[in-house]
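Lab notebook, design round three. We kept the backbone fixed and only want residue identities now. Task for the bench partner: fill in a sequence for the structure below.
Input structure tokens:
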């Protein structure tokens, strides 16, 4: 007698094998049988006609503080996601993240990494979480926004990184378009990645450039991984900027060549043509030096100098030349009137423009005023081309990562619907990859990269993190204007054998755990 049987569904094991109709038996929080005749159970769920897969593993999440919210947040469980990898893009909330508050907009205690994980565990996450330690956070902890490290600073960063890995950090992340991480040279990143090597965890990177300097940025990421002998995860793989479209083949060729040369590299991607980040990313990163962007933008001469740099393009120019004002949607700002409006609309509307203090219709000046008023303001920014996105999506080296924000306000729809959208729009409708490959991309491909042993597969002995979904209806109708729609087609979700989503509804239980590499 086992605890629970999922009977009669099409089973996808997460390893890429074709689906087959069979039963999945669960007992004591683990899978005890797949296929065959598992006998009886006090509870049997008939899942005939549905897909039974491992719970999805989100390779690139920003839910670091979500478990600390007063109410449980099931927005990932409702997508079938049972585990998130947080701490991406160089920003973790420990150790000592208080010095980055101007950029993150979050005031947090000066946690050690161990204290941060203890706080998350005590709060009780809705789903499992694993967390990277961020390079920008390490740099901020020892040097604030200083562009140059003082003697001894790098060794202190290495010590803090080692402490984080001892506490359970699942890797090292960098965000090389954001200060203070953008100030680092390759040698600094290698020195920190060498510490990750000692603990057998990967280096993940939001690279220095995803547009005109994409090739050089890829080369740098691969060089860091090669020199430090670490696994490499290229975050949110894309080709950004209208002038750069058509380079997906180059990106993938570099990843394949690196693997052929002995670098264990993979990547992740979200299935959208727009990204989301801080509005300040429109500016050259140098504008944020020292954490005094407000003071800098108060000077007409400095705004003009930054404009010249931004319009020149290239690495270090920011995202200004990769987008258009009508492709920049302000999603969060200290002045609520701006949220939900494009930069073009704010610039053209005299009443809104008056709130910025800019007298003329000048999108650059309006953007600078918005950032000066709220350096932590956020945007959704249209950057990618569908053909590039689909080519990257089809490659077996690329998994799925949502790059989500907090589940509140006008966030990017990927926060609520990344995984169902991938399955509905690109697997069922576009048939970019078959179902078994789609499931592998969302499960074992990421679990293995971050050494989450026993996750990401349906096999005897594995943890019973399971997603049951309807291939005919799975999807997400969220848009950039109305992102928080409920996904469709996610029927049941289990965490360690406990039903946390049943018939599409969250049961209310906080069953998530803090996961560490093993």
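Proposed sequence:
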């Amino acid at each position: 007698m086992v605890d629970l049987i999922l009977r009669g569904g099409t089973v996808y094991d997460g390893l890429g094998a074709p689906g087959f109709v069979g039963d999945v038996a669960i007992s004591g929080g683990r899978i005890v049988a797949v296929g065959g005749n598992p006998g009886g159970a006090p509870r049997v769920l008939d899942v005939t006609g549905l897909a039974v897969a491992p719970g999805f593993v989100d390779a690139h999440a920003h839910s670091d503080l979500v478990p600390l919210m007063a109410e449980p947040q099931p927005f990932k469980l409702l997508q079938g996601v049972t585990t998130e990898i947080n701490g991406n893009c160089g920003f973790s909330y420990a150790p000592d993240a208080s010095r980055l508050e101007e950029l993150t907009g979050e005031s947090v205690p000066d946690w050690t990494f161990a204290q941060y994980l203890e706080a998350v565990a005590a709060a009780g996450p809705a789903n499992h979480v694993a967390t990277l330690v961020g390079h920008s956070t390490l740099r901020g902890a020892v040097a604030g926004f200083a562009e140059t490290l003082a003697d001894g600073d790098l060794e202190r960063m290495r010590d803090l990184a080692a402490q984080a890995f001892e506490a359970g950090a699942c890797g090292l992340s960098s965000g090389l378009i954001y200060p203070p991480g953008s100030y680092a040279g390759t040698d600094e990143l290698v020195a920190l990645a060498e510490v990750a090597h000692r603990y057998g965890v990967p280096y993940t990177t939001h690279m220095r450039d995803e547009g005109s300097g994409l090739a050089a940025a890829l080369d740098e990421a691969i060089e860091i991984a090669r020199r430090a002998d670490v696994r490499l995860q290229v975050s949110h793989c894309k080709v950004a900027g209208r002038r750069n479209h058509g380079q997906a083949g180059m990106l993938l060729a570099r990843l394949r060549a690196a693997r052929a040369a002995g670098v264990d590299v993979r990547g992740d991607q979200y299935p959208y043509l727009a990204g989301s980040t801080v509005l300040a990313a429109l500016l050259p990163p140098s504008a944020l030096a020292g954490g005094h962007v407000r003071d800098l933008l108060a000077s007409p001469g400095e705004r003009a100098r930054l404009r010249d740099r931004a319009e020149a393009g290239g690495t270090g120019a920011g995202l200004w030349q990769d987008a258009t004002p009508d492709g920049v949607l302000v999603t969060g700002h200290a002045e609520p009137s701006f949220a939900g409006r494009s930069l073009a609309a704010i610039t053209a509307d005299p009443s809104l423009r008056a709130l910025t203090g800019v007298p003329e219709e000048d999108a650059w000046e309006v953007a600078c005023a918005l950032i000066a008023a709220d350096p932590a303001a956020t945007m959704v920014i249209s950057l990618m081309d569908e053909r590039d996105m689909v080519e990257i999506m089809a490659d077996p080296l690329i998994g799925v990562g949502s790059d989500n924000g907090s589940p509140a306000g006008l966030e990017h729809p990927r926060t609520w619907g990344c995984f169902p959208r991938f399955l509905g729009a690109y697997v069922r409708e576009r048939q970019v990859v078959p179902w078994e490959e789609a499931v592998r991309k969302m499960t074992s491909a990421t679990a293995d990269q971050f050494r989450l042993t026993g996750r990401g597969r349906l096999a005897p002995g594995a943890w019973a993190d399971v997603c049951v979904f309807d291939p005919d209806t799975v999807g997400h109708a969220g848009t950039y204007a109305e992102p928080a729609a409920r996904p469709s087609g996610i029927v049941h979700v289990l965490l360690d054998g406990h039903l946390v989503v049943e018939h599409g509804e969250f049961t209310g239980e906080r069953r998530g755990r803090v996961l560490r590499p093993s």
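Keep this in mind before ordering anything: The chain is about 30% helix and 20% strand.
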